[in-house]
């Protein structure tokens, strides 16, 4: 049996085991076995295939795996609390000026103030939440006001 075919079988077996274990190491070793199989398929001697396997394994384990683990530990970035409200749209319930106002944001009433100190936003206008300052939403109108 050809050496490259053994490498290919090893790559498939490691890939299947990786699917069930999710260790990342076996998948990286499977990729390294594919590298060795390619080297064998183009006619390189077994010693070169082994060197290719070892080099690809080391590169995967020492360079790729730490990056993958860091990304998995971090997880998806999920905004919560007041951070999740920034950028959302709201409706003005009471006129909003630089000191006071009231908006409906995500089904709740929030105190609000305009980010532009010279601007008074009328009732019914749609605004974007620019930031949350304590318990007050700092807003700016979505459309130009008359």
TrEMBL record:
It is a multi-pass membrane protein. The keyword Protease does not apply. It is found in: Membrane. InterPro entries: Membrane_assoc_protease, NA-bd_OB-fold, NfeD-like_C. Residues 83-141 form the NfeD-like C-terminal domain. Coiled coil: none annotated. Its main location: membrane. The keyword Membrane applies. Pfam families: NfeD (PF01957). The chain crosses the membrane at residues 7-40, 46-64. Keywords: Membrane, Transmembrane, Transmembrane helix. PANTHER family: INNER MEMBRANE PROTEIN YBBJ. This is NfeD family protein.
């Amino acid at each position: 049996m050809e050496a490259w075919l053994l490498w290919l079988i090893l790559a498939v077996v490691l890939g299947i085991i990786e699917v069930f274990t999710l260790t990342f190491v076996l998948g990286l070793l499977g990729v390294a076995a594919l590298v060795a199989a390619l080297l064998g398929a183009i006619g390189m001697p077994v010693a070169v295939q082994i060197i290719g396997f070892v080099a690809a394994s080391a590169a995967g384990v020492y360079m790729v795996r730490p990056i993958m683990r860091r990304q998995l530990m971090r997880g998806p970035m999920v905004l919560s609390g007041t951070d999740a409200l920034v950028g959302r749209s709201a409706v003005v319930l009471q006129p909003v000026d630089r000191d006071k106002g009231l908006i409906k944001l995500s089904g709740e009433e929030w105190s609000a103030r305009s980010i532009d100190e010279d601007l008074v936003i009328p009732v019914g206008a749609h605004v974007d939440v620019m930031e949350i300052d304590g318990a007050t939403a700092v807003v700016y109108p979505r459309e130009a006001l008359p």
